Amino acid sequence: MLIPLDNNILQEIAQTYGTPVYVYHAEKIADQFKKLTTAFTGVNARFFYACKALTNISILKYIRSLGCNIDCSSINEVHIALKAGFAPANILYTSNGIAFEEIQTAVELGVNINIDSLSNLEKFGKTYGHLYPVGIRLLPNIMAGGNLKISTGHENSKFGIPVYQLNQILALVERYKLRIVGLHIHTGSEIKDVEVFIKVADIFFELAPHFPELEFLDMGGGFKVPYKENEQGTDIYLLAQEVSAVLNKFDATYGKKFQVWFEPGKFLVSEAGSFITQVNVLKTNTNLNFAGINSGFNHLIRPMFYDSYHRITNISNTEAPTKEYAVVGNICETDTFAWNRPLNEVREGDLLVFHNAGAYGFEMGSNYNSRFLPAQVLHKNGQAHLIRKRDELADLWRNQIELD
Ligand SMILES: *Cc1c(COP(=O)(O)O)cnc(C)c1O
């Protein structure tokens, strides 16, 4: 049984490295990966960590050491993955809206590629014909998860080639003898409902006969993790069961065994991350008690950007009675993390911890207001390791060119 990082450990890390600081629990990442591989025992599945959730190179090396593959959303992520030691065959580049030059670089680097537009598919055909295997990212017209900002499969989404343009895809395949080895559909993030993945499988089932060289069916990522107390995540075991049944159906109908690929981002790293901040100021107005912390949406944008919920705890005053607080940041914008949040009584100097902050936390951070990006720490084998220094002043003008 995995023991979570307790408050003492978090306090020590805050003391050693200062705040704000992101802390990642290596064994929790391993535990999540094990959940996947255990659930999918006996299923011909491959997992590609969607690294845009968290790209720190020490984290990537750790994830590689677990035996996981990697999914990249830009050519720079492909370069980072190579630097972290992933073999090209274990790297997947699922592009969207990119310049064809990036696809050419991906081919030169020898990684797996999913293409998401007819235009790039045509350029790919003209350049490589049958020479280089490729997957197609499709748009299925499925609304998943309920939040338009993080749903990518609905009819007005920019992602993928709409399934109804199948004839155009097939015309390109025919003209350039394209070697289509994979079909890809990623419907979005925070998908609790296993049904969504089965709908995707049904689409693959319809399409498979059109692509005789097909080897893998890529169902994307988007497994939900619980953010609130008592919330349910995606039932990975149920998913594995249903996917296994679908693969058997493929086998029985087409006499062919396909591999199924997944691209979990959040599922692997979200719960492993804690973001430690410190309270600068307390302020009261007629309706609210503000707890003003030494951070803002420049460090954790999810609450303001997606209305997402992060559990927050005061680890400095755990025995005190609770009061309601508006937890706000220190940048010159409305950067509210939570409006009416019961917390153990907060005092200036207390440490407030944001839970489930491993995915899309640091990664979406910026230097807005000329604030430093936080430090990052990986806690592994009972020890804390600094894996990224906090910025310093020189970082803020590093690439600037000073005219007289
Ligand atoms: C972002 C992304 C993922 C990962 O999504 P999570 O919600 O973090 O699991 C997987 N595949 C693609 C193509 C993505 O863009």
Helix content: 25-40%
Please identify which CATH superfamily of the largest domain we are dealing with. Answer: Alanine racemase
For the sheet with most strands, the description reads: 9 strands, mixed
Q: What's the CATH topology name of the largest domain?
A: TIM Barrel
Q: How many E strands?
A: 18
Number of domains: 2
Structural class: alpha/beta
Distance between the amino and carboxyl termini: 61 Å
CATH class of the largest domain: Alpha Beta
Task: Figure out the total of helices.
Answer: 12
Helix-strand string: HEHEHEHEHEHEEHEHEHEHEEHEEEEEEH
Strand content: 15-25%
The gross shape turns out to be: globular
Mean pLDDT: 95
Q: Residue ranges: pLDDT <50 for 5 or more in a row?
A: none
Bound molecules: pyridoxal-5'-phosphate
The assigned CATH architecture of the largest domain is: Alpha-Beta Barrel
Helix-strand layout with pairing:
Elements (H helix, E strand, L loop, with lengths): L6 H11 L3 E5 H14 L5 E6 L6 H9 L3 E4 L2 H9 L7 E4 L5 H10 L2 E4 L2 H11 L5 E6 L21 E2 L3 H11 L3 E5 L9 H14 L8 E3 L17 H19 L4 E4 L3 H4 L3 E12 L4 E5 L8 H5 L5 E3 L7 E7 L7 E9 L6 E4 L20 E6 L2 E6 L4 H4 L8
Parallel strand pairs: 1-17, 2-3, 2-10, 3-4, 4-5, 5-6, 6-7, 6-8, 8-9, 9-10, 12-14
Antiparallel strand pairs: 1-11, 11-12, 11-16, 13-16, 14-15, 17-18
The structure holds pyridoxal-5'-phosphate (PLP).
The site of pyridoxal-5'-phosphate has 18 residues, from helix 10.
Can you offer a commentary on this structure?
With 404 residues, this protein is of the alpha/beta class. It folds into 2 domains: 26-269, Alpha-Beta Barrel (TIM Barrel), CATH 3.20.20.10; 273-357 and 374-390, Lyase, Ornithine Decarboxylase, Chain A, domain 1 (Beta Barrel). It contains 12 helices and 18 strands. The protein has helices spanning 7-17, 26-39, 57-65, 75-83, 100-109, 118-128, 166-176, 194-207, 236-254, 266-269, 302-306, 393-396, and strands at 21-25, 45-50, 69-72, 91-94, 112-115, 134-139, 161-162, 180-184, 216-218, 259-262, 273-284, 289-293, 312-314, 322-328, 336-344, 351-354, 375-380, 383-388. The strands form 2 sheets. Strands 1, 11, 12, 13, 14, 15, 16, 17 and 18 form a 9-stranded mixed β-sheet that branches. The protein has an 8-stranded parallel β-barrel with strand order 2-3-4-5-6-8-9-10. Helix 6 packs parallel to helix 7 (166-176) and helix 8 runs parallel beside helix 9 (236-254). It is globular, with a radius of gyration of 23 Å. It binds pyridoxal-5'-phosphate. Residues 50, 52-53, 71, 73, 94, 186, 189, 220-223, 263-267, 359 line the site of pyridoxal-5'-phosphate.
